[in-house]
Specification:
This protein folds into three domains: 59 residues, SH3 type barrels (Roll); 60 residues, Nucleic acid-binding proteins (OB fold (Dihydrolipoamide Acetyltransferase, E2P), Beta Barrel); 58 residues, Beta Barrel (OB fold (Dihydrolipoamide Acetyltransferase, E2P)), CATH 2.40.50.140. It contains one helix and 16 strands. The strands form four sheets. A five-stranded antiparallel β-sheet has the order 9-8-7-10-11. The chain has a five-stranded antiparallel β-sheet with strand order 14-13-12-15-16, with no helix packed on it. The longest helix has 4 residues. It starts with a strand and ends with a strand.
């Protein structure tokens, strides 16, 4: 059980038997009253963000989340298919809302962690940065820097991102999966 002042950012708590991630927490005292922890919580299943105040007498259980490795196989008609890393015949599918927008940076046969709550996968833990090959990049036109010198490239997963003009087809680039943006070009060795 967590005391009111132990409810801090990055913790996962149970509220009405539902898992919430604490995004922000601020303990303050209103005039002569007892301290209050004003928090901002994100529901891990629906993604809805709410605000909740916890008082000195409040205690909240910490959510029992576990992770398990899963292997990405393919996407078909909005269903994302995964399997156990050791047994490829143990297949299951996840909906778009569980995979999220970061799924467009998943390569086939990539092993990632899945967050499990109540024996059900509720989210995927993508690495913050991934390295992907550039499948298609339009040629850089000299003098075409009025828009800041960027062009739209297509990655091996089919995702499109904006990148600098010097990125060419066949290059390997590093992408931030949280923001969906280009970070840097990776040296070829």
């Amino acid at each position: 059980m967590l005391e009111y002042n132990e409810i801090l950012p990055k913790k996962v708590i149970l509220l009405d038997n539902e898992p919430y991630e604490v995004l922000d927490a601020h303990v303050f005292r209103k005039q002569q009253r007892k301290p209050v922890n004003q928090t901002k919580l994100r529901h891990l299943i629906t993604g809805r963000v709410t605000e909740q105040a916890f008082h000195v007498s409040d205690k909240v259980p910490e959510a029992d989340l576990s992770t398990k490795p899963v292997k990405y196989l393919y996407t078909n008609r909005g269903e994302w298919w995964f399997s156990s890393p050791t047994n490829q015949s143990d297949r299951f599918s996840l909906a778009n809302d569980i995979v999220g927008p970061q799924g467009m940076f998943l390569k086939t046969n990539t092993i990632i962690d899945a967050l499990v709550f109540d024996e059900k996968i509720i989210a995927l833990k993508m690495p913050i940065k991934v390295e992907l090959a550039v499948k298609d990049a339009p040629p850089a036109v000299r003098g075409n820097t009025s828009q800041g010198g960027v062009k739209q490239i297509t990655l091996e997963t089919g995702a499109t991102v904006n990148a600098p003009l010097f990125v060419n087809e066949g290059d390997v680039v590093r992408i931030n999966t949280e923001t969906g943006t280009y970070v840097e070009r990776v040296d070829k060795k």
